[in-house]
């Protein structure tokens, strides 16, 4: 453990509360704890005590916990003072900590020290922030899986398989003049294919986790009077939008939040898209087009009883889902149909199938695992997958030295995920987004 200066911060949210926590981390804090409460607390046992100022007067009364290194959150000595959660009390305790030699911690510095002292890896450190920021139960569960080390463990498994292959290939290079053709006599190509498959699986689960973390911006669009507002109300299970038989009832954007299969959804209803109309309706149509342009997914609603063309809105196929509404007028069957979904927003037929279709597009279909991976994790895994494919090609061609170099690149990308090959700039960017006191 590297000796670093003592840091301190209020670890609970600002404002009034029943409990407030001041946390300290550093080296040799037993003396600091004694000056705070008059004696050295027993390690990892809660002690009810007065928190003392420089003159021996009581600032507050509460619980003090002392965690000697290395068995602590950060791997250093850690003190936690759990007092009454008033801003004045917290400020006084923090000021007292600074009088005793601490400085105010930077955002995320406690978690950063846990990483630097090998208590957690970088992916686990990021999972701390993701758990705090979780917008749904499923996102929190996925973040907890990553924090518990499952995601890092999967990365480590792939890294070990790659290392074994590198060792074999390097040995083959060392014995290049032997009559044995190491590549021809081995299953290197098949093993590399297995690594590709493992990366593909982890990439798919990471992409689902990215959807859980970021959420999805979904816009309902289409011509007037096809049931867009009725669909919004049905998905929200409440009458949020005004619904009438008069075309052009919706004049402006109407947004609401919901959750579908654990994915946070920002759902927006728009004005019916048509040429003409009064000036107010024209402004609404312009806003609708802007919302469609920036949406992650557009639900293009059509009247199933009238011939329609989803391509009229000029939305790429990967960003649109055609919703054929009013099947009660045609006798059509609800549910998935080709690349679209048949529904009746009036009675709810087919809406469950629509929800599942949205979840699948978000990459978070029910019952499937997910890790709350970040964009940089997905980019690193994608690069590792690309280098592995090249290595397999080179091994198949008999170029073991080139294959080994590609596998070195794979390990570099995997190491960046867990922090084995991290740079200071990356660490600063990651931990700057954390809460102070965490």
What does this structure look like?
With 438 residues, this protein is α/β, with parallel strands linked by helices. The chain has three domains: 7-120, Gyrase A, domain 2; 131-211 and 372-419, tRNA modification GTPase MnmE domain 2 (Four Helix Bundle (Hemerythrin (Met), subunit A)); 218-361, P-loop containing nucleotide triphosphate hydrolases (Rossmann fold, 3-Layer(aba) Sandwich). Helix content is 43%, strand content 18%. The strands form two sheets. The protein has a seven-stranded mixed β-sheet with strand order 8-9-7-10-11-13-12, with helices on both faces. Strand 3 and strand 4 (58-67) form a beta hairpin. Helix 4 packs antiparallel against helix 5 and helix 6 (150-174) runs antiparallel to helix 12. The longest helix is centred in the middle third of the chain and has 27 residues, at 188-214. The radius of gyration is 29 Å and the shape is flat. The two termini are 19 Å apart.
Layout of helices and strands, plus pairs?
Elements: E1 7-10, E2 17-26, H1 30-37, E3 47-52, E4 58-67, E5 77-85, H2 87-99, E6 103-104, H3 109-116, H4 122-132, H5 137-147, H6 150-174, H7 188-214, E7 216-221, H8 228-236, E8 254-260, E9 263-269, H9 279-294, E10 297-303, E11 320-325, E12 335-337, E13 340-342, H10 351-361, H11 375-396, H12 400-418, H13 424-431
Parallel strand pairs: 1-6, 7-9, 7-10, 10-11, 11-13
Antiparallel strand pairs: 1-2, 2-5, 3-4, 4-5, 8-9, 12-13
Helix pairs in contact: 4-5, 6-7, 6-12, 7-11, 11-12
How would you briefly describe this protein structure?
Helix content is 43%, strand content 18%.
């Amino acid at each position: 453990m590297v000796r670093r200066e003592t840091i301190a911060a209020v670890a609970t949210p600002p404002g009034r509360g029943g409990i407030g926590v001041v946390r300290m981390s550093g080296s040799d804090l037993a003396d600091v704890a004694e000056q705070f409460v008059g004696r050295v607390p027993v390690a990892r046992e809660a002690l009810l005590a007065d928190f003392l100022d420089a003159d021996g007067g009581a600032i507050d009364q509460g619980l003090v916990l002392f965690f000697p290194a290395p068995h602590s959150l950060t791997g250093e000595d850690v003190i936690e003072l759990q007092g009454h959660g008033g801003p004045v009390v917290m400020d006084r305790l923090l000021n007292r900590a600074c009088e005793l030699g601490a400085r105010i911690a930077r955002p995320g510095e406690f978690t950063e020290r846990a990483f630097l002292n090998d208590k957690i890896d970088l992916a686990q450190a990021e999972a701390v922030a993701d758990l705090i920021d979780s917008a749904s139960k499923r996102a929190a569960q996925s973040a907890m899986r990553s924090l518990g080390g499952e995601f890092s463990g999967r990365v480590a498994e792939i890294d070990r398989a790659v290392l074994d292959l590198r060792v074999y290939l390097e040995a083959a290079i060392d014995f290049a003049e032997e009559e044995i053709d190491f590549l021809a006599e081995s299953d290197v190509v098949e093993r590399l294919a297995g690594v590709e498959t493992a990366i593909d699986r982890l990439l798919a689960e990471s992409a689902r986790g990215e959807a859980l973390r970021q959420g999805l911006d979904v816009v309902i669009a289409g011509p007037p009077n096809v049931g867009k507002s009725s669909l919004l109300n049905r998905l929200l299970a409440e009458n949020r939008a005004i619904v009438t038989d008069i075309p052009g009832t919706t004049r402006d954007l109407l947004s609401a939040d919901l959750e579908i299969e654990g994915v946070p959804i920002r759902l927006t209803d728009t004005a019916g898209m048509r040429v003409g109309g009064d000036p107010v309706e024209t402004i609404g149509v312009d806003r609708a087009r802007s919302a469609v342009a920036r949406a992650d997914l557009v639900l293009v609603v059509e009247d199933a009883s009238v011939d329609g063309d989803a391509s009229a809105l000029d939305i790429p196929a990967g960003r649109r889902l055609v919703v054929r509404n009013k099947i009660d007028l045609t006798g059509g069957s609800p549910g998935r149909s080709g690349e679209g979904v048949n529904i009746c927003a009036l009675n709810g037929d087919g809406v469950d199938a629509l929800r599942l279709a949205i979840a699948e597009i978000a990459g978070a279909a029910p019952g499937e695992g997910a890790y709350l991976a970040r964009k940089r994790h997905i980019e690193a895994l994608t690069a590792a997958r690309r280098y592995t494919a090249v290595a397999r090609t080179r091994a198949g061609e008999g170029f073991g030295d080139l294959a080994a170099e590609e596998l070195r690149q794979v390990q570099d990308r995997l190491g960046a995920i867990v922090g084995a090959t991290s740079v200071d700039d990356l660490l600063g960017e990651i931990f700057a987004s954390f809460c102070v006191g965490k």
